Amino acid sequence: MSVQIIVNKDKCNGCEKCYYACPKGPRIWKKDKDGKFYVYDVSDCHNCKICVGKCPVDAITINILKDE
Ligand code: SF4
Ligand code: SF4
């Protein structure tokens, strides 16, 4: 089982709440050149969904993928 995080860049306003709320923020989240956030490395994510709850614009979707 693995985690996939999708950020809707059209919605993201760069507020940084995902980055600061996530227990592994600096490892997982990064800001792109447009000031939007993206998932740099999902391997430390433990699917707590804190980021989803903190995002004020519902830009984050987490999917659980079953390994083949
Ligand atoms: S689900 Fe939890 S660990 Fe994963 S990116 Fe969001 S806040 Fe971080
Ligand atoms: S919390 Fe949501 S709106 Fe704020 S930077 Fe993260 S993805 Fe973008």
TrEMBL record:
<dbReference type="InterPro" id="IPR017896">
    <property type="entry name" value="4Fe4S_Fe-S-bd"/>
</dbReference>
<dbReference type="GO" id="GO:0016491">
    <property type="term" value="F:oxidoreductase activity"/>
</dbReference>
<feature type="domain" description="4Fe-4S ferredoxin-type">
    <location>
        <begin position="3"/>
        <end position="32"/>
    </location>
</feature>
<feature type="domain" description="4Fe-4S ferredoxin-type">
    <location>
        <begin position="36"/>
        <end position="65"/>
    </location>
</feature>
<protein>
    <submittedName>
        <fullName>4Fe-4S ferredoxin iron-sulfur binding domain protein</fullName>
    </submittedName>
</protein>
<dbReference type="Pfam" id="PF14697">
    <property type="entry name" value="Fer4_21"/>
</dbReference>
<dbReference type="InterPro" id="IPR017900">
    <property type="entry name" value="4Fe4S_Fe_S_CS"/>
</dbReference>
